[in-house]
Each structure stands twice: as C-alpha cells, then as structure tokens.
Amino acid sequence: MTAELRLTAVNAWYGKVQALWNIDLHVRPGQVVTLLGPNGAGKTTLRRAINGTVRRQGSILLDGRPIDTARPHTIARAGIGTVPQDRGTIPGLTVAENLRVGAIAARKRRSGDDRLDEVLTLFPDLAGMLDRPAQLLSGGQQQMLAIGRALIGRPRLLLLDEPSQGLAPIVVDTIFTALKTLATDGLGMLIAEQNTRLGFAIADEVIVLGSGVIRARGTAAELADSPDIQAIYLGGGAP
Amino acid sequence: MNTLMQTVVTGAVSGLVIGGLALALAVVYQGSGILNFAQGQFATVSAYLSWQLTTWGLPFWGALVVSTVVSFLLGFAVQQIFIRPVQRADELSILIVTVSLLLIADSLIGSIWGFLPKSLAGPFGEAAYTIADVVFTAQMLAQVVLLVIAIAAVTILFRKTSIGLRMRAAAAAPESSQLSGINLAATLAIGWGVAAAIGAVAGTVSAPVTGLSPDVNSSTLLLGFAAAALGGFHSRAGAVAGGLIVGIGTALAGAYLPGVGDDLRLMIPLLLIVLTLSVTREGVFTRRGTVRV
Ligand SMILES: Nc1ncnc2c1ncn2[C@@H]1O[C@H](COP(=O)(O)OP(=O)(O)O)[C@@H](O)[C@H]1O
Ligand SMILES: [Mg+2]
Asked: What is the ipTM of this complex?
C-alpha cells in the first residue's frame, strides 16, 4: 500500500535559473523523511520537482517506476498526495467539494468515499462545516482540509510543505498528532519544515537543504548530536 | 401596443443572446484567464455550420444539436492547438493569438461560404401572440426557451457534475487542482469547448432573425464584452445578468434617446465597458475579495 520514492541526481530550474543541484533522496515504504532548511533553501522546489510542477531533470522513481517526465495529475494519480505550502485549499469550493476534488486522484472513485469517514475521524472539526466555503475556514481548519483532501486520494506517499507554517501552537499539535497517527498506520511521508523541533520529532530521517543542495543527512539522533548542525542550518527553532 | 414594454421585451430577448455570448466569454476567462476576442466569430462559424446542415437536409433542430456538438469539439481543439502552447506566455501574446483566431475564422467563413448574406429559416413560422399589449413572436419565444435551456445546462454542468467541479477547481486553484489529479490542460480545453457550444446555440437561434453574414456577430461580441465587463468577467450569473441589462439598455437608448437611433447604439456598450472598468476594474456583480466560480 505504501510506496517507495527514490531521487537520484535531480536538478531543477525556474526558467534558466537553477534552484536544485544533484539531489539524492530515498523515502523507504512507510518512512517519514523531514526536509529542513531556511527560507529559500529549496524545500518547495524539491517538492515541486517530485510533483512535476517545475522543470526538472534526473531520476525520480516511485516504486521503481520513473515519474520524472510524467505530468502533475498523472503523478498524483500514481499515488503521491500533496499538501502544498499555501495549504492549497480551493477557494470558492465548499469543504465537501474540496474533499471530492481530492477523490479524483483515487483510482477507484468509491474508495474516495470510504475515505471520507476516515478523514472526518482524523479531523472531527471538519465534519460540522462540510457546506462552508473553504476560504472562510481558519488557517488550522484549512490545513486540516488540505491534508484531508490529499488523504482522500488514497496516496501511497504524502508530501507536506511546511504544514506548521503560520499556525497557533495548539493547532500545530493537532496537525502533527494526526501526522504521527498516519505514520504509525504506515503511510510514508516527506515533510518540509522550518520548525526544527517538529521536524526532528517526527522524522525517521532528516535531510538538511541549503541553497539548493543537500548539506547534511542522518537520523534525528545523529543530526541532533552533531555540533555542526546550527552552523549548517540557520533557520529558526533549536533542535 | 405598449411601446415601452415592447422595447423592453425585445431588448431582453436580444439581451439573452448577448448574455449567452458573455457567458461564453466568462467561462473561458474563468478557466484560462483569457479574453477570447474570437468568441463571437466562433458563434458565427457555428451558425454557418447549422445553415450548411439544413441545406444538406437536416431539420433546424438536428442542425442545432449537431452544430453545438461539433462546436464543442472545435472549441476544445482550438484550445489544444493554438492556446495551450501560449497559455503561459504574456497577456499580449495571448491577445495576438485570439485576435488572429478572429481574423482566421473570418477568412474561413469567407472562403467556405462566401461573403454574401444567407438566411437560415427557423421552424417557428410567423406566429405571434399578444400578451398584455406586447407582441411575442414564436421566434422570440423559441429563442428565449433555447437560451434559457442552454444557460441552465451550463449552470448544472458547473454546479452538479464532476467535470464542472474540475472546471471550478482548476479555475480557482490551478496548481492545487493538478496536485489532486485534475488534468489541467484537458479541463481548460473543455471550458473552451463549452464556451463554443454556448456560442453555437446563441448564434444559431438568433440567425433566423439576424441572417448570416461573416460579421453578423461582431456587434453582439462588443455587447457581450460590455455584459461580461458588467458581470466582472468571472461571474457566470453576472455575465447573463449583464447581457440582459445591456440588451434592454441599448434597446431603450435606441428608442428613446434622441440622436442615438440604430447607428449609434453601439456607442452605449463601449461607454459601458469604459465606465465599468474605470470604476471597478472588477465588474459590479463581483464582490471584492471573494473568488467567484
Ligand atoms: N516561482 C519561482 N520563480 C523563480 N524562482 C523561484 C520561484 N520559487 C522559488 N524560487 C527560488 O528558488 C529558490 C528555492 O526556493 P524554495 O524552493 O521556495 O525554498 P523554500 O521552500 O525552502 O523556502 C529560492 O532562491 C527562490 O528565490
Ligand atoms: Mg517553501
């Protein structure tokens, strides 16, 4: 059910400007990998390279099958669920409609419907506001909706781009508790974070990006003990 | 005869045609962010197509249906062939492409059907009914019914179907939609197809009144732009309402404003466009700060 993602020597560009250099990355089935790095480090670009929404080159394999020339919607349908940095809820659509859009990625339409109950169990807050326009939700509710929409597509791997950004600590707790539940259930995840404490706490493996290249990698324990980590990683929050 | 009411009713009937074209403009603008200057000419091609089909022996209704379906496919193909390659280009390039499409459609019509006017016989005959001192011809009634059906069909498509959900999602949040498995290119092309199909209905049902000539819809397109500007370009309901306002407004102006008459009527939509865009830049039917779909 859960998938393996492997990137080898991946580069990415915005127009003629290169933004990622020679990225190697491996998310094993069911593993949680955290991408740390300050603003502008290239976390979102790496997420986009996997999604196919930025020009990229190099090998990207999902369960051994290349997806590096596939189009974004095909990649989503192949099993990569995404929660983009802006939360990516769709304004003008209700909560229920946002969730129905999520079901498009599920290969079997029905399985998306079954999944609705699971999403509402994970985020009971959403149950009472299914008919509300998404843009009227609070930031935390929108983040839950974005995660819910990704989950309804029955992803085999989840990409999350700074899920804690701009949220109150109590909401961040709710979100990360839910993410840990998903991890325990065996869903593989690649999480970009600027909050090092959160990033370390949930990670099986941590990758530190800076200026578009990988600066360090290791388990949370290895990197937390590394005296160099603060020198390499200049973002907010102590490990 | 009640002249004022008659003017209002006649204006409302042509207002629905204008609203149909404005709706087509809005559907494309919502999805692709493009003002399709060729939208009126697409409708004219569709109307000629309907005429051609009737000369081949198809009844009016059959011609209307076939022309609408073919127009959908043509709209889809035009987006895929001419618009998709420049979708990410700057506004000026896209503008040049849609204006070129207008000119190409123009010369296509000329080379296939010639520049002499043709007439498309409607199946409604000369019947007319007088209700409360206002004359309704069967043609007028049929036009209203068919356009209301077309507008209702588009509304249902957007509100109640999975394709409509995809089109609304793609219009509001293209990147997120792709990441949820929506094929953006295909969805935008469907929008162009739907717009062309609305134009086909509007062009064909009004043809028995207006006759067919290559430039028959050019003034309607200008009126459609005025209606869409009033409606805010990305509100479908606003576009239709704008069409009614423009239709009734120009009819009243033509009848009652001294010196306007039939010739200067087209100044009115132009003034409306300049006025709405300078005052709101958004259209009066679009609430600021919310996204209309
Ligand atoms: N749409 C874009 N166009 C051009 N450059 C971009 C764009 N998005 C990001 N960049 C550049 O790419 C680099 C990496 O940015 P990003 O991936 O967004 O970093 P992060 O997500 O880690 O904050 C930065 O130098 C940024 O300025
Ligand atoms: Mg980012």
From this structure: 0.90
Q: Which residue has the higher pLDDT, A223 or A52?
A: A52
Query: Which residues hold their Cβ within 5 A of ligand 2, which is an ion?
Result: A 43-44, 85
Q: Residue A161 CA: which ligand is closest? A: 2
| Ligand 1, pocket residues at CB < 6 Å | A 14, 19, 37, 39-45
B176, two tokens: 């997120």
CATH 3.40.50.300 fits A1-79+156-239, yes or no: yes
- The chain A residues in contact with chain B (CB within 8 A) are 51, 53, 71-73, 76-77, 82, 84, 88-93, 97, 100-102, 104-106, 135, 149-150, 153
Question: What pTM, to 2 d.p., does this model score?
Answer: 0.88
pLDDT at A237 over 50: no
Location of each CATH 3.40.50.300 domain in chain A: 1-79+156-239
**Helices (DSSP H) in chain B: which residue ranges?**
3-32, 39-55, 60-78, 91-113, 138-160, 162-172, 174-179, 184-210, 218-231, 236-256, 267-279
Which residues does chain A have within 8 Å of residue B160's beta carbon, measured at their own beta carbons?
Answer: none
